[in-house]
Amino acid sequence: MSQTVVCRSRHRGFTLVELLVVIGIIALLIAILLPSLSRARAQANAVKCASQMRDIGQQLYMYAMANKGILIPLKGTGTDNPLLAGGLRMSMNEYEHVLHFVFDKGVWQGSALLAPAIFDTQTIDPYPDAAIGKSPSGSFRYGLTAWLECSTPQTGCSVISSPGAFGFTPWLDRATGYYAILGMFDSNNSQDHFGAKLEQQLEPLIIDALAQSGE
């Protein structure tokens, strides 16, 4: 008499405790690896930045070799390369980036590169008892790098400007929410303050235009 024995294998699943242990191990590994990945990404960005700086340096060197050792643009007048005080020349688009950076208090493309307190200090008169020899306006006081266009320079001004000796006049108004540049050439601007006077005439017009447009 033959007998048939049937054996059934029983597959046991994972228990909840085992799943939690596996999940915990995976989370621990991720926590260990993420800082390493971040450091690797930062190192890659640093290498990329160094490479780009090297390319810029090579291009500047080639430009200087082709222009008798001069790195700045040779055009002294016009709106393409207006002349700033100190002899620097740059295009209006280039200077707009500088002014945008100052207006946003050190934020560039979403990243805070400088502390906002630096730009808050820029709007305050650091030496309220100092005598001002020359001023674009009799009421202007001078802060750090800019003229303070308000009646309360000791506590801070929302409007600051920096009219140059050759007519180039940038300013910003954080209260209204705009910045502007007058790119022109006036060799006598340090005496007649034409740029600052024109700026003060334009300011109320710009404010009215922004109010009407709902900006």
Description:
This protein has helices at residues 16-66, 92-103, 116-122, 189-192, 194-213; strands spanning 107-108, 111-112, 141-142, 147-148, 159-161, 169-173, 178-182. With 215 residues, it is of the alpha+beta class. The strands form two sheets. It has a five-stranded antiparallel beta sheet with strand order 3-4-5-6-7, sandwiched between helices. The chain has a two-stranded antiparallel sheet with strand order 1-2. It is elongated, with a radius of gyration of 31 Å. The model has no long low-confidence stretch (mean pLDDT 77).
List the helices and strands and how they pair.
Blueprint: H1 16-66, H2 92-103, E1 107-108, E2 111-112, H3 116-122, E3 141-142, E4 147-148, E5 159-161, E6 169-173, E7 178-182, H4 189-192, H5 194-213
Antiparallel strand pairs: 1-2, 3-4, 4-5, 5-6, 6-7
Order of helices and strands: HHEEHEEEEEHH
How many helical elements? 5
Helical fraction = 40-55%
Structural class: alpha+beta
The gross shape turns out to be elongated
Radius of gyration: 31 Å
User: How large a portion of the residues is in β-strands, by DSSP E?
Assistant: 5-15%
Distance between the termini: 100 Å
Q: Taking strands numbered 1, 2, ... along the chain, how are they ordered across the largest sheet?
A: 3-4-5-6-7
* Poorly predicted runs: none
Major sheet characteristics: 5 strands, antiparallel
Average pLDDT, all residues: 77
Task: Give the number of DSSP strands.
Answer: 7
